[in-house]
Amino acid sequence: MAHNKPDPAGLKLRLVAAERLKSVLAGDNFVPLTAKELVDGRDRALANRLITTALRRQGQLNFIIHSLLDKGMPGRSGTFEAVLRLSLAQLVFLPDLGAHSALFLAVEAVKRDPKARHLSGLINAVLRSAQANSAKFGMLEDDMLIPDTFGDTWLEAYGEEAINGFSSALLAGAPLDLTLKDDDAELIGQLGAEKLVADTVRVDQRDRPVDALPGFAEGRWWVQDAASAIPARLLGAKAGGRVLDLCAAPGGKTAQLLKAGYMVTALDADANRMERLKENLKRLDYSAEIIVGDAGTFAPNSPYDGVLLDAPCSATGTFRRHPEVIWHRSVGDVAGRVRLQKALITNAFRCLDVGGVLVYCVCSLEPAEGEEQVEWALGTLPGLELWPVTADELPGLESAVTAKGLVRTHPGMKPGGNEGGMDGFFVARFRRR
Question: Where would I find the SAM-dependent MTase RsmB/NOP-type domain in this sequence (predicted)?
Fold first, then answer.
């Protein structure tokens, strides 16, 4: 009587990780694996570690794969590439996990895929070659981590020292930043957090999911990167005024505007993301007027005292959290976002009362989506003038304020002196004369 042999230990997590990595390589955003996909917390943590290492080291892995595969990546080969990248990431960059499991589980994983099983001999040979050269491959230059698509532009815009910081930030990933509802030293202690700038605190190490951290259920804070928290603080519209938050979901900036005492209309075109915004505001015990609609065509009954436009963008500034983004984006993608941003800035201006304040921001490192948009707006929209930000408005981040009074953060910066970096963000503030 035949007995089905149980899967080797570690195979399931390798198969699940390969499927997730395959989808990201095909263009999806990386979403960490959850308990639904891998029940065991240790397996889940290891699978996510393998995937994120493969994504953060993508440039170096590209070089290694090119060196080892004489004929290039086989076409229509199922999960072969994903398994190969995970296994190379383990062999070369995660030596603490051991070489044997990388080799054995790679072959087993490929054998389980009907589209890839004919390549089991190839993956074994390639990984053995990589193992023999692991010391050499482990010394590859960090400048391989940033693709040429953006590397030259960033070098010109930010300088060599900053770019070195970008590479370090990419490998380190992003700590957890929170915006506090109230300044509460006891809560900060319970979270094991440190104060960064203004009402932002940072949790460098945690041993549980976000929704299990102290104060979450009671609505005492919300997740928001230190850079993302800057734009709403700079609005400076009249006290208690009516403010429009365009492209508002998932609601971090909406919550900040409500905390500041404004009457807020939150608008976004994505109904699903707006449900998340509603849930977030409910947990925080905040309320706003919520509209699902197009930020490019929205026409209010009466103009607003302030408009905050967090425009759709290339999102290159978020690569600490989403390392895949800098490999997915092209020059054409950026150009498409630039055209959309101009339409949104124009409509944001239409929604603004005379004397009102417009804050434009993007989580992008591209000058075309930031500084160049400011020049375009000032030259195109009559009655719009720049209201420069001053360094004393951003204590702890004075270096982010440019000579023209714009705000430019990047992943190499240290908010409040913290080594954990921050997202790349651009912020400009205008008034309507």
Answer: 138-433
